[in-house]
Amino acid sequence: MISVDDIKLSNAQIAWRAAQDIEDGAYVNLGIGFPEMVAKFQPEGRQAIFHTENGVLDFGPAPEPGEEDWDLINAGKKAITLRPGTAFFHHADSFAMVRGGHLDVAILGAYEVAENGDLANWSTGKGGVPAVGGAMDLVHGARRVAVVTDHVTKKGAPKLVKRCSLPLTGIACVTRVYTSLAVIDITNGHFVLREKLATLSFDDLQALTGGPLHVEGDVAELNVPEV
Is 53 a catalytic residue? Predict the structure, then answer.
């Protein structure tokens, strides 16, 4: 089998691919950490309206180093900038937006995604995220939930599995996964392969996936620029 480390996409490239599917004017929440990178790669001519759980809507990009105002941060405690029309509001109002179905897209990281769309992205284990936080609200409040992740763990085990073994964040909530090797939809309780790296065969990709990959129509090449 080809060495996955030699061909897999970087986190920035995964984030770039996920950004291409965000529509102009969409209300979007990006999970803490890796998913925050998606905001850097909005396609030309499109502007998403980014939401953060601590109470800011339509904030701008990160400031230049040394120009941070630490009264202006997102939920991950990263410095943000303001755009014309940026709104501030109470934490409770922010979650009312989430729970009220006012977000178009939530993009999160994952430890495991099951073939039925279950998501596990927190853990009480050593080094794990210590609490489920707002993700449990996001995955059932947003109209579309996507995941950005490496295809396998650092030990080479599949992150896309038949059933999650870790504590669940949400049940049957994920509809698309952007990995370091492929783009995979979750449809009718199945992993449906939409795009894969041209240098990786279907059989090799299946060997790295913990549930059966289904094919419906043509599978496109996963083409991502150097970013």
Answer: yes
